[in-house]
Design goal:
The protein is α/β, with parallel strands linked by helices. It has 2 domains: 171 residues, Rossmann fold (3-Layer(aba) Sandwich), CATH 3.40.50; 160 residues, Up-down Bundle (Dehydroquinate synthase-like, alpha domain). The strands form 3 sheets. The chain has a 7-stranded mixed sheet, sandwiched between helices. It has a 3-stranded antiparallel sheet with strand order 10-11-12. Helix 3 packs across helix 4. The protein is 44% helix and 21% strand. The protein contains 13 helices and 12 strands.
Length: 347
């Protein structure tokens, strides 16, 4: 088992290993003053792991409630989030109790926001069941829901009390869902190039690689908790990725969209002479290895229109994460006209 600590406005332990779901009650017990637990999860995850988590919590003395909702990004809405808030209120939870977010990034984001809003904040324990959520949404305290106008537009920063990444959960993931997590890992490896050889090994050591990604994110969060400086490097691929998601009506999964977003912008940068051609080639090689897309079927105009709703926009400009002459992603402010040119070159 790997253990890390994220030091932000509240310190948070992150545990990575096998069998952690069955130990959730034991591990959360010292951190939660109250003894009421609401498990928030989508329908698919409830069928797989809901009863196991309930049993673990009840064995440690928690009284358990459930809030179960339809699965998928299409349900990452204020209406679904309010179902969690109302479940807390109807059960009479107070600020000593806790929400246990069991699922992927959608559940982590929604349940984290519900916990942050209810009574101005109660504890939230994250139990990511996908590789993507373990590498991404479970770390850093970002919570949000989508609006019709764009992704993650309603949210706040709220650090979880504990994160338990049970790697056994990844065994039940469909191949395309498991691949989503590798998109996030590839992104982290380009931000910290010494990780790239680990991904290129014949048999990548997942637990070690995942811990290294969480460590990278924890360092960025510790130095920039509210995402105004270096933490924005974690948005590599996200501007175009979010545009792809929106253009697809949320049919293209987040990890696949981000993979395509990274590839499109990196090819555009290479074509424009902003980064070496071998940077794009290495990125594409890794994305192919993990069965991730390198492009999309949408036009430059469609993607640019969707990107204008991105929460990173500032008036007529946007801050992007793009590889530089060294091949390492960095922050670059540009106009939407310049972004359109890069997209056109990269498609």
């Amino acid at each position: 088992m790997k253990e890390l600590t994220i030091s932000a406005s509240r310190s948070c332990r992150v545990l990575i290993g096998s069998g952690l779901l069955s130990r959730a009650g034991e591990l959360a017990l010292p951190l939660i003053e109250g003894r009421r637990a609401l498990i928030a999860c989508g329908e698919r995850v409830f069928a797989l792991y809901g009863e196991r988590l309930r049993e673990s919590l009840e064995l440690s003395g928690f009284s358990v409630w459930f809030c179960v909702y339809p699965s998928g990004e299409a349900y990452k809405t204020p209406e679904t989030m309010l179902l969690i808030v109302k479940a807390l209120a109807e059960a009479g939870f107070d600020r000593s109790d806790a929400v246990f977010a069991l699922g992927g990034g959608v559940t982590g984001d929604m349940a984290g926001l519900a916990a942050a809003l209810y009574r101005r904040g109660i504890a939230c324990v994250l139990l990511p069941t996908t590789l993507l959520a373990a590498a991404d949404a479970s770390v850093g305290g970002k919570t949000a829901v989508d609006l019709p106008q764009g992704k993650n537009l309603l949210g706040c920063f709220a650090q979880p009390r504990l994160v338990l990444c049970d790697t056994d959960c990844f065994r039940t993931l469909p191949p395309e869902t498991f691949a989503e997590g590798w998109a996030e890992i590839v992104k982290c490896a380009f931000l910290r190039p010494e990780l790239l050889p680990l991904l290129e090994e014949p048999e990548p050591r997942l637990e070690e690689i995942l811990a290294a990604c969480v460590e990278l994110k924890s360092e960025l969060v510790a130095s920039d908790e509210f995402d105004t400086g270096v933490r924005r490097l974690l948005n590599f691929g996200h501007t175009v990725g979010h545009a792809i998601e929106r253009c697809s009506g949320w049919e293209i999964p987040h990890g696949h969209a981000v993979a395509a977003g990274m590839a499109i912008l990196t090819r555009g940068c290479a074509a424009k002479g902003l980064c070496p051609p071998e940077t794009a080639a290495r990125l594409e090689s890794l994305l192919k290895r993990f069965s991730l897309p390198l492009s999309c079927d949408f036009t430059e105009g469609e993607l640019l229109a969707a990107a204008r709703a991105d929460k990173k926009t500032r008036g007529r400009r946007i801050t992007l994460v793009l590889p530089d002459e060294s091949g390492r992603p960095g922050l670059r402010d540009m106009s939407f006209e310049e972004l359109g040119e890069l997209i056109a070159l990269g498609l």
